[in-house]
Amino acid sequence: MAEESFQLYDTTLRDGTQQEGMVLTVEDKLAVARRLDALGVGFIEGGWPGAVPKDTEFFRRARTELDLRNARLVAFGATRRPGVRTALDPQVRALLEAGTPVVTLVAKSHTGHVRSALRTTLAENLAMIAGTVRYLVHAGRRVFVDAEHYFDGYHLNREYALEVVRAAAEAGAETVVLCDTNGGCLPDEVRSVVAETLALTGVQLGIHAHNDTGCAVANTMAAVDAGAVHAQGTAHGYGERCGNADLFTVTANLVLKRGREVVPLERLRDLAATGRAVTEVTQVPARAAAPYIGGSAFTHKAGLHASALRIDPDLYQHTTPELVGNTMRTLVSDMGGRSSVELKARELGYTVEAGSDAVARAATRVKELENRGYSFESADASFELLLREELDGGPRPRLFEVESWSVGVSGAQGTQVRTEATVRLTVQGRTVTATGHGNGPVNALDTALHTALDPCFPSLARLELTDYRVRVLSGETGSGAAARVLISYRDGRRRWGTVGVDGNTTAASWQALLDAVHYVLLDGPPGRADDAPPLAAATG
Amino acid sequence: MAEESFQLYDTTLRDGTQQEGMVLTVEDKLAVARRLDALGVGFIEGGWPGAVPKDTEFFRRARTELDLRNARLVAFGATRRPGVRTALDPQVRALLEAGTPVVTLVAKSHTGHVRSALRTTLAENLAMIAGTVRYLVHAGRRVFVDAEHYFDGYHLNREYALEVVRAAAEAGAETVVLCDTNGGCLPDEVRSVVAETLALTGVQLGIHAHNDTGCAVANTMAAVDAGAVHAQGTAHGYGERCGNADLFTVTANLVLKRGREVVPLERLRDLAATGRAVTEVTQVPARAAAPYIGGSAFTHKAGLHASALRIDPDLYQHTTPELVGNTMRTLVSDMGGRSSVELKARELGYTVEAGSDAVARAATRVKELENRGYSFESADASFELLLREELDGGPRPRLFEVESWSVGVSGAQGTQVRTEATVRLTVQGRTVTATGHGNGPVNALDTALHTALDPCFPSLARLELTDYRVRVLSGETGSGAAARVLISYRDGRRRWGTVGVDGNTTAASWQALLDAVHYVLLDGPPGRADDAPPLAAATG
């Protein structure tokens, strides 16, 4: 049963933007907001209008361009400054001008911060809080108050921290959110402080945790267990330093472990897709190991587990992956040997006999290649090509031959950079030479390859290179080190990857490009449609 | 005071190797073991001899090549198989042959697993456990038992789970480790099950947690709070699916939050360096957001915090970074504006006046460049070049000019891949042309650049390119998308990075290569020695 009163609160677009390496445009923020709304979060904190020009712009555009179905938009800001009349404080005015139904105010609840950072008196701080809350409530806003550094403040001066909570609530704040701003708490402290604060004030409480002790999610769960009805977090745990509580993890935990339907069950099935969509916008590399939605979250490697998995997946999984939009995967690696290859082959749609020679040969080849630096974990397509050679009893028919390839990049004062690739292939007995241009060597080679082949093999036209990663092996980048290149593709509705390894980075890329072409030209196993659902990406 | 009786147990080399994307050689495992020993962990689980050939080899070589000062080496394996005499079970023999002082046996404690996975009776499973433990104790080994799927097993059939614990202990196992194998627990369940098990059996207990609910560290802390005296984890939380408990985080939490000196305080100062050393071996990308030791763990971005930080760092940090070998950093970004630039400039050794025009101009340029895709967060050197131009009141003197550059890569059937770069520079009035070869375009250009310049500028010879990363902006890789290239360098004892942005990936790399050269040729601020301590790397 849906729990409408729980306040699931996302601060990706404000606190999450402190994430090192993340820079969002206003367009990006609107896109993220739409996805979070679709997931069903209750509140989306859009930014700090007035203080951050990009955020002022975001709220302005949101009024006409953001059509939220589930979430309420929230503007974040500070209480009025010491000694200034609330109505005259330009920050407070900016909060109102943002035009949101909800406003969250950050307030000091730690006597040390009141004195050193705000440089005012404890009494004035309380007046700032009460005055600003009252002003905004009077203006028709729902108000939440973030009690900054609450847990440290409670430890230092409990009475004052509690006074801050009471002052905010008495002035009309709907929820007071207890913030572990420095992230130094462990769950037992959070639980007892939340429980005590609730018992001593009776105020509706929330939690805002950071991950500096590796316990942000656990702290959030502990606070909710202790009676908090509002939980803040960010997509993927984005945030400053060690990040905020990962709101995706918290959401799944609340629904699946606590039976609290803070988003509807049907929406929870969009969790993994929501995560991927956010990653595409932020370009912060996805964590394969992210709980519930990471590419590795339900990925099994060891041969030991692989055999048990064939019997009963629930023996080795704490929940059903499909509930969060994820799937179980098995990896081919030298740990798993034949069991892994068998399981993977079946996953790809092939019918293989347990203990077949083909599987054994494929497993041996995988192990040898891995010793040379190959990794098939993000390269399902390259693995499938290898498997097919063994299942078919020999190398795949050569639909074309490569005679030569080259690519050059050059720049000079005052001119545009030029990149040109040339490939020379033999296709159906004829020599075909094609050139390609692009934004770099890999892109140019890819273009040349398609120029040469697409006329003869029209199915190649649907291939779209979506990402490539170069990993220099052995930790050295001087001459002599090998490089492993992983290229990711979108192929109609499916996503898959290829791998290449060579002492030369461009040659490694060329291998991976060729594998992709061979893979598309390969017939899939009987029964697998070209528009089969996308395979889960290995890394987000 | 050192707590020698606490069993800090590392399973990086066994459970951690299930990490997707990690493949270690025997040499790698020996190197990691040495670093963990130096840190002061109590036990190092080296692998599964007999089952994994590489691990059999590891234990063989460890006998002569691994000189452990603090840790005990542990061999991991399974109890004898059903219906087989312990002394005749080849797996058990392999455990003995590993020659370690300690052996850890994994045993089923979940009735469902005993029946479905082992396919034997509950009674035989108990006999397997007791028999194998007794056999190994009799052979002079200290024995730990991992009670697999304990928490799920306890929930399903409490009595049997407790019987397993008792049987292991009565047969001579020193510690029974309760494993949340599927990772589905939350801390409160862990706490109560550990407390109950301890109360009902009196056996010395340990905890082995996984991160599938995002609570591995918290679960470990909860178990220790409930009386466990043994905690298992892996370096950086490596492991299958969502990983194991991050032993670095657990160690720091136990020492700094619980006052339990599970490693000596002086050794804790090596935590960050240990983490980096392990990363260099495993090549699994370091998480900047890792608690305590991540590059971002004590990194502050927002202008709000930057001003408070100048007053009192403790206001915004939950502990002192140096205690774990980390340092506080500030980031230059558009969020921080002038405060961030000022703070960063001082961190780099420059004397700047608060509110100076130079700082304001630098902040404006940073913001503009960031809008075009630049990121200075991993590129301190590029930032410093920009800052110097503003502080010096104009562009840096041109010690050389670039006339043109080009690089080509080509391959053909039956021949080695060739990469050649040519650069044409004007140095001290003369035109210098140089070529370079390498393992790819960036390496070749770098070589050519140094061939041209090192004779005139000998200080450049100490530059060593250690890593480069290409990020395609806007999520597209077709023509038209811009690329951002970050190159990392080792320069004597210092490490720093440069950035380049261009529509062409190679041109972006070229920019970053040039920045590095200009940076080395720049005089540092007065008072900063060339062998200043290395700057903390932005991403591990």
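The radius of gyration of chain A is 28 Å.
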